[in-house]
Design a protein that fits this description.
Elements: H1 2-16, E1 40-42, E2 45-47, E3 52-55, E4 58-64, E5 74-78
Antiparallel strand pairs: 1-2, 3-4, 4-5
């Protein structure tokens, strides 16, 4: 029992003398500038607003999900081939 208490005291004293490391107060954020870029995806490829792709016999266009939003999500819409 005496040896156990001695070991516990040594461990506690080691923890008390452990080296402390401080971090900067404000984080450094590094981005590639495309964090908020609006995109449509198809087959793991990214397409921007106005892009047109052909899937089978159908043409799709990358458009705003909600017309009244300036920075909302994009989605694929079937392109009207009649004009």
């Amino acid at each position: 029992m005496r040896n156990f208490v001695l070991v516990v005291l040594l461990v506690i004293s080691g923890v008390a003398h452990a080296k402390s490391v401080s971090t900067p107060k404000s984080p450094v954020v590094i981005t590639d500038g495309k964090l908020f870029e609006r995109l449509c995806y198809y087959e793991d490829k990214a397409y921007t607003l106005g892009s047109v792709i052909k899937v089978g016999e159908i043409y799709l266009i990358c458009q705003k999900e909600q017309e009244f939003e300036l920075n909302g999500d994009l989605r694929w819409l079937q392109l009207d081939q009649g004009g």
